[in-house]
Request: fold
Amino acid sequence: MVGDYFTIFWGVMVLITINKILPFGTIDSIRLQNYNGFTKSGEVDKYIMKRLVSLVLVIGFAIAGCGGYGGYGSLQTTPQAAPPVSGEEIGVTASYAKFQPSRVEVSKDKPAHLKLTSADTNHTFTVDELGINVSIPAGKTVTQEITVNKTGTYSFYCAVPGHRQAGMQGSLEVK
Reply:
């Protein structure tokens, strides 16, 4: 949420800077000649070039300033694995770009109750190899009983477009 505000702030700052730095079009160049006392066309070109270089620097710093948030268009971080969760009832919270915990253990041939909670928007808990696909409505908790009859480590992910690519995935270990 805070990252969204930073992105908006820098976007507004770039727009203000563009408006103050860059003269647009031929009419503005003529105005610069008349109002700023330029007598040679080379002086106008130097003036515009200085402003363009300043604009590029401001945009570069704005983009660099927005890079720390894990939202759209910025660097993605890999969620850290939490300690494995075992037992009859397994709680998993889904929020943008992560499952918490991202590693879950269940026992082979024993029923496990997945308590799936969405902290923000609609998500899914999907394990293709086991045919599991549970929808989790925004802000709700869904309990799904699963019994897995083959051991191994399987990937689970959110099937909402863009969520898996943002890092919303984990592993389900069946022992």
